[in-house]
């Protein structure tokens, strides 16, 4: 690889020497300069920055562009110069090479000391150095053992449901091929007889054994192989090539360049990362969606808080507004003129601002609350150390919002070193006084999805030791000290109130530590940190020892606003027959209210709530017996599931039962996914219109997706924006990543990427439905044209004593699929359009045909097969029988090659014209491709028949086409045969459209939108768009050539319901309307109907 030829500085003989990356070995000491990439996985030794710190960008690993901080071990800070670095002697003990990007366990043995090494000292290949002159490191893993290379595996291969069904169709064709060959071979063995002495069947010449009547079994075998070769055209080998080409163009040209899915603010277009699943987008029945960053914007704003049992912060959230609008209520929002507004901070309460908190009844609680916000985090400050110009690099938007809140409350975090945090505190000693205070960070107990909390042990300037902890209310409440029941109870009520408003909540607590207790605990912490085996588990166990007896300070409430257009999109998708499940880590109350605001749940629905937050379960949990707790919760879940299922079934037995919604939390879901309860959960979920799973882990998201995918055998789609959604995205049939603020992990694991949830409507209802419709037509048409062509050869076999004589010339057979019928079907796969994009979204019910797989059922295949048999009989017998009485200009009757050339001409013309009959819209490309295919045949046969060679039976066709075209028989047959062959299809399509129309055909009758879309419709669409989308829409509506032909079975709209629809009056469709159209010759313009 070219990248491995890049040069890197390596320490050799006390100087830096440049060598290529590919020559690096484990143990080499290297120097990486600013903006350079790390050539291998390195142990970070030293940096030119203060306190051994460097900044790296990990965009190549996880897509995140915010800088990460890495800190060298203090013992190695001095190894910067070649002379000093050459003195470095040590031993590195570490885990085996693995693909985990975020974990590393090792020890550095230097100067008889064991120093624990963790991911903070690891510089991974693929990352780049930023804001640092240079760093020095030791190579740990190289080449294919580096973490980035071990992660370089493909996203799990996914095949669409239609492709899997296509495999069955191909198997059916193989069976058909075998049956046809078997019939021919048996017929040959029976036909061979000594009475046909004049055929010299017993000749001793080479190759005559195939027809030797003395060995009929040999005749059977040899004829079988001959016919397999002869009938092999029934297998559409070129079908897979054509489908891949169509899908690739659909992805790169249609999906990726759709302006309706382009996000103007972030300059993000839609991205199809695979072309395998285009048609799967048109058959999705279940959508599993993350909440944060997917339904919401992931732009966190500090909105309210509870301190010492008192709520601070005014205003109403977007979620409350949405719920109010659903209930028909109206709120008048009063915005204070003194309210501070900043990205990440939307707080309005003068009681806490500008030092006014000192006058509150609980000023000490307020002070601890603000310090906890300012100290307990892993945020990095950037830029000038002033409140107006500083920027924070945070692992999550929540954390940044909390630090910004602390800044606005007068506790400004402005600088960080590996061991210190600097806070500019205002109004603490007295009003108006500002002082810079440094806090020594002794230990950081990291946040993870298991712990659901983060703790920091810090030393105040006066030597006081304090542990600050923030995390989910469930884990914090379990670790609170006894007593303080009043504040616990009030804060819990406040948490429920915040959750009801759709706010994200965290609890804050602290604990003062005695120096002796801390020193004793720190020894265990250092031991756990140095452990090579189960380090994470041991660190969690040690953290449990100190994260107890906490004192509750209060809670924060952060608003994450809904994305634009989410409620309308969800409503549209539900009308399309798609069921939407929300899988979130939020509280039950928050999730329910988000679901209300999204139109996922409404007041008319019957809600089943299965939660572990009940008094009965709490009582059992308070006893502390984990085995008893697990048994009890499982029994409760079983009881609730059974009760809900019975109630759901009773609603379904009544005609006017309400729609159902299920809400279940993560703890109950854990037991509901048990094999003994899984079927009951699935049955209940299948009967529900909407499902909301709260407090779920990433693994549970994937388990729920797999439950529906494998248990119910439904086509599923997962959509998310964060690393915690990756497993869910990969578990579903189709994975959608949203390129949001949580990095690019979800996008990198997805099949399709979009910028906003609302674009899902365009992706599924427009591109997905069109792709499904087009691919179905391509597959069934390929099946039809190959079967039709092969059956003409099959009928000929009966006339030749089953000898295996060819009906068509070899070149005809070879070029039939490659040239004469290749391009038109690709054009249909790219451009066929039953209704416009606007009507696809206006009538989302059209999507249900895809969910039912209405266009690729065995019944549909059987109808195509029937017409293939009919047309092949017409081609062979009409041409062969009519040729018996026909003569050429010399008065001679036509021979085999005359008849076969005539039949082949009819086949090429008919199958190309048949393609036009299945098109819903016909463009110039259709005319060019169909005309081009027929023209290509005539050009080829003119040239081929005009050349005489003695090779490969070509002399048989010499001058055949010229002789044929010199007779009137040729032209009469060329007109009559396609008409007779296609007459059955024409009648069937007319009757089907009249008596049993597809949904899209009804919409076509109602809207003549392919000819001229009314201005009213365009205005209606435009009013629903944002300014950026309106601009995109305007571009897409620029004048262009539009086909004046619809390709409908009947093509003249002159019936009552059409005019009624144009005048804005609804008139139900009548069967005789369609028949009445036959007499209508002209198409009235909209402007004339005033």
UniProtKB/TrEMBL annotation:
Keywords: ATP-binding, Magnesium, Membrane, Metal-binding, Nucleotide-binding, Translocase, Transmembrane, Transmembrane helix, Transport. Its cofactor is Mg(2+). It is an enzyme of class 7 (translocase). The active site is at residue 290. GO terms for cellular component: endoplasmic reticulum; membrane. CDD domains: P-type_ATPase_APLT_Dnf-like. It holds the Pfam family Cation_ATPase. Mg(2+) binds at residues 290, 292, 721, 725. GO terms for molecular function: ATP binding; flippase activity; magnesium ion binding. ATP binds at residues 290-292, 399, 447, 470, 504, 584-586, 695, 701, 724-725. PROSITE patterns: ATPASE_E1_E2. The chain crosses the membrane at residues 169-192, 217-241, 778-796, 811-831, 861-881, 893-913, 925-947, 959-983. It is found in: Endomembrane system; Membrane. It is a multi-pass membrane protein. Belongs to the cation transport ATPase (P-type) (TC 3.A.3) family. Type IV subfamily. This is Phospholipid-transporting ATPase.
């Amino acid at each position: 690889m070219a990248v491995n030829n890049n040069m890197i500085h390596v320490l050799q003989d006390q100087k830096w020497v440049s060598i290529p990356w590919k020559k690096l070995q484990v143990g080499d000491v290297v120097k990486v300069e600013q903006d350079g990439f790390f050539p291998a996985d390195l142990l970070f030794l030293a940096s030119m920055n203060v306190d051994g710190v460097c900044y790296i960008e990990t965009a190549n690993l996880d897509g995140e562009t915010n800088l990460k901080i890495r800190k060298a071990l203090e013992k190695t800070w001095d190894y910067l110069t070649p002379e000093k670095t050459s003195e470095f002697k040590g031993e590195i003990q570490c885990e085996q090479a693995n693909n985990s990007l975020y974990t590393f366990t090792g020890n550095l043995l230097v100067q008889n000391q064991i120093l624990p090494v963790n991911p903070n000292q690891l510089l991974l290949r693929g990352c780049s150095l930023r804001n640092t002159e240079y760093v020095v490191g030791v190579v740990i893993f190289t080449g294919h053992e580096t973490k980035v290379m071990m992660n370089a595996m493909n996203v799990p291969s996914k095949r669409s449901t239609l492709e899997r069904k296509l495999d069955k169709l191909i198997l059916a064709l193989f069976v058909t091929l075998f049956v046809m060959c078997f019939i021919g071979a048996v017929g040959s063995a029976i036909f061979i007889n000594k009475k046909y002495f004049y055929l010299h069947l017993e000749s001793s010449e080479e190759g005559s054994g195939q027809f030797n009547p003395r060995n009929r079994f040999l005749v059977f075998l040899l004829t079988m192989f001959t016919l397999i070769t002869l009938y092999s055209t029934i297998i559409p080998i070129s079908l897979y090539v054509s489908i891949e080409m169509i899908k690739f163009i659909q992805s790169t040209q249609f999906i990726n360049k759709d302006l309706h899915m382009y996000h103007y603010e972030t300059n993000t277009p839609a991205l199809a990362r695979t072309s395998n699943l285009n048609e799967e987008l048109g058959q999705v029945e279940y959508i599993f969606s993350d909440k944060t960053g997917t339904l919401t914007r992931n732009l966190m704003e500090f909105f309210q808080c509870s301190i010492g049992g008192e709520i601070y912060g005014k205003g109403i959230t977007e979620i409350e507004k949405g719920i109010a609008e659903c209930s028909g209520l109206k709120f008048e929002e009063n915005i204070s003129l003194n309210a501070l507004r900043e990205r990440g901070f939307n707080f309005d309460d003068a009681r806490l601002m500008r030092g006014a908190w000192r006058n509150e009844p609980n000023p000490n609680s307020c002070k601890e609350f603000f310090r906890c916000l300012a100290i307990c985090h892993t945020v990095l400050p950037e830029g000038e150390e002033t409140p107006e110009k500083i920027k924070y690099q945070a692992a999550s938007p929540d954390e940044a919002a909390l630090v910004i809140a602390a800044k606005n409350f007068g506790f400004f975090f402005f600088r960080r070193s590996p061991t210190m945090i600097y806070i500019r505190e205002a109004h603490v000693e007295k009003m108006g006084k500002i002082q810079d205070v440094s806090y020594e960070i002794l230990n950081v107990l990291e946040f993870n999805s298991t712990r659901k909390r983060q703790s920091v042990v810090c030393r105040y300037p006066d030597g006081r030791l304090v542990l600050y902890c923030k995390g989910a209310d469930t884990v914090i409440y379990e670790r609170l000290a006894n007593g303080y029941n009043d504040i616990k109870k009030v804060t819990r009520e406040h948490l429920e109130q915040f959750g009801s408003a759709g706010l994200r909540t965290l609890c804050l607590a602290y604990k003062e530590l005695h120096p002796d207790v801390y020193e004793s605990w720190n020894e265990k912490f250092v031991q756990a940190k140095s452990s090579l085996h189960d380090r994470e588990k041991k660190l969690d166990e040690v953290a449990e020892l100190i994260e107890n007896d906490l004192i509750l300070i209060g809670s924060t409430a952060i608003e994450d606003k809904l994305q634009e257009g989410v409620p309308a999109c969800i409503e549209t998708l539900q009308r399309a027959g798609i069921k939407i499940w929300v899988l979130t880590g939020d509280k039950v109350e928050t999730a329910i209210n988000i679901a209300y605001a999204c139109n996922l749940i409404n007041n008319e629905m019957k809600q089943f709530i299965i939660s572990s937050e009940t008094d009965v379960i709490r009582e059992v949990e308070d006893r502390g017996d984990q085995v008893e707790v697990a048994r009890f919760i499982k029994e409760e879940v079983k009881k609730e599931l059974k009760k809900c299922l019975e109630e759901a079934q009773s609603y379904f037995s009544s005609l006017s039962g309400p729609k159902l919604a299920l809400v279940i939390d993560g703890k109950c879901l854990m037991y509901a996914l048990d094999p003994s309860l899984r079927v009951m959960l699935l049955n209940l979920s299948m009967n529900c219109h909407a499902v909301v799973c709260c407090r779920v882990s990433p693994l549970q998201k994937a388990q729920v997706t797999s439950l529906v995918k494998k248990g119910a055998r439904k086509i599923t789609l997962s959509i998310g924006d964060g690393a915690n959604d990756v497993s869910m995205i990969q578990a579903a049939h189709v994975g959608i990543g949203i390129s949001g603020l949580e990095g690019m992990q979800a996008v990198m694991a997805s099949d399709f990427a979009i910028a906003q949830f609302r674009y899902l409507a365009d992706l599924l209802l427009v591109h997905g439905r069109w792709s499904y419709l087009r691919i179905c037509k391509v597959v069934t048409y390929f099946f039809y044209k190959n079967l039709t062509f092969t059956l003409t050869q099959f009928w000929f076999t009966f006339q030749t004593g089953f000898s295996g004589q060819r009906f068509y010339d070899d070149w005809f057979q070879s070029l039939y699929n490659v040239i004469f019928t290749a391009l038109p079907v690709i054009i249909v796969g790219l451009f066929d359009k039953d209704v416009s994009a606007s009507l696809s979204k206006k009538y989302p019910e059209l999507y249900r045909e895809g969910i039912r797989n209405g266009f690729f059922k065995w019944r549909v295949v059987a109808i195509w097969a029937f017409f293939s048999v009919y047309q092949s009989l017409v081609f062979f017998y009409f041409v062969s029988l009519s040729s018996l009485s026909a003569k050429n200009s010399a008065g001679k009757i036509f021979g085999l090659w005359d008849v076969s050339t005539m039949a082949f001409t009819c086949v090429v013309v008919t199958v190309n014209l048949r393609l036009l009959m299945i098109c819903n819209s016909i463009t110039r490309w259709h005319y060019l491709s169909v005309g081009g295919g027929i023209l290509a045949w005539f050009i080829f046969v003119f040239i081929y028949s005009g050349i005489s060679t003695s090779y490969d039976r070509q002399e048989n066709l010499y001058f055949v086409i010229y002789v044929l075209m010199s007779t009137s028989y040729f032209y009469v047959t060329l007109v009559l045969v396609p008409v007779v062959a296609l007459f059955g299809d024409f009648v069937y399509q007319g009757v089907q459209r009249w008596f049993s129309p597809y949904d899209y055909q009804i919409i076509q009758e109602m809207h003549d939108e392919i000819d001229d879309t009314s201005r009213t419709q365009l205005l209606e669409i435009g009013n629903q768009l944002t300014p950026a989308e309106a601009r995109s829409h305007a571009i897409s509506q620029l004048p262009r050539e539009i086909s004046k032909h619809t390709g409908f079975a009947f093509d003249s709209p002159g019936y009552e319901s059409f005019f009624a629809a144009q005048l804005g009056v609804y008139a139900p469709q009548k069967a005789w309307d369609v028949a009445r159209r036959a007499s209508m010759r002209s198409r009235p313009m909209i402007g004339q109907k005033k």
